[in-house]
Amino acid sequence: MKKLLFQTDLHCGGCIRKIEAGLNQLPGMDRWEVDLAHEHRLLSVWGDKIDPQAVQVVLESCGFEAKAEKP
Question: How confident is the model at residue 65 (pLDDT cuts 50, 70, 90)?
Fold first, then answer.
C-alpha cells in the first residue's frame, strides 16, 4: 500500500471535517489522517492508486493548501 504525505495549513478539527467528505470519495483511498501536532500539519494518505493531484484539488476546493512531501 502506498503512503503519501502532504504539508497543509489545517489547524483544527473543523478544518478536518471540511475536507473529510472529499477525501473519503477519492478513488483508491484506503484511509487518511491529519497530524495537527506536527509543525507542518501533515496529512497522511494510504491507498494503492491515489492521485496526489486529486488530494491537492480536494483541499484547495475546501480553501486549504496541500504541498506534497518528497518520500
Answer: very high
List, in order, residues 6 or more apart from 8 with CB less than 8 Å away: 34, 40, 41, 42, 43, 59, 64, 65, 66, 67
Cell digits for 50?
491515489
Residues 6+ apart with CB under 8 A from 39: none
Cell of 64: 486549504
What pTM was computed for the model?
Answer: 0.92
What is the domain extent for residue 38? 2-68
User: How many domains, in total, are found in the chain?
Assistant: 1
